[in-house]
Structure prediction request, 230 residues.
Amino acid sequence: MAYVYKHTRLDKNEIFYIGIGCDKYFFRPKDKKRRNIYWQNIVNITDWTYEVIFIDDDVDIVKEKEIELIKLYGITTDGGTLCNMTLGGEGTLGLSPKNIKKCFGLSPTGEIKEFSSLMEAARFIGSETFAPNICHICKGKHNFCKGWRFGYTEKDLYKTIISTRGKIKNKSNGLSVIIWGKSPSGEIKKFENAYRAAEYINGHHTLVRKVLKGKSLHTKHWIFSYSEII
Prediction:
């Protein structure tokens, strides 16, 4: 026997999670362990209830029902109400190139990597819980996750940086301004903008900009320029 259950938050009377279980005592719906951080954040601020809404002896049918209900209510990153990390079907089986877009990642060191799905990218940088953040980055709502930028195309990796207030921090016809940095040891490195440079040297972008404008000789012993440094 297997079943599908739902969790409802009482402050909004809203379904926030769809899951499946296979224990005959319906223990899984009540279990607070093995939940993602977004689920934990919700139950930390509101009471919640659970309800078993579908039961069948065929596990495959139960998985299909879970996928159907998750699609119906929608994951929060797609405008829905659910904090689920996958599209259903027993964990990550619901996530495949057919039902989630591939994406590209730009590492803190400037390397570009292609991923078959957002979940694959999330696992690569450390945890499946990063998947919603990566989705927001791809949609232009966030800038970085673990120092990485993400996009559905390689060109998206170089979109303008957005401030926490939703304002564009740097303008260059929709693309970031490439700058060059010279380390204290003489290493030459290219950055897509002052923010990435500051992040790389663990400094502040305003100090990087002062060097770029000639108001300072260096910051953290790094020299920066809009043209390639020799």
The chain has three domains: 2-94, 103-158, 179-225. The mean pLDDT is 82.
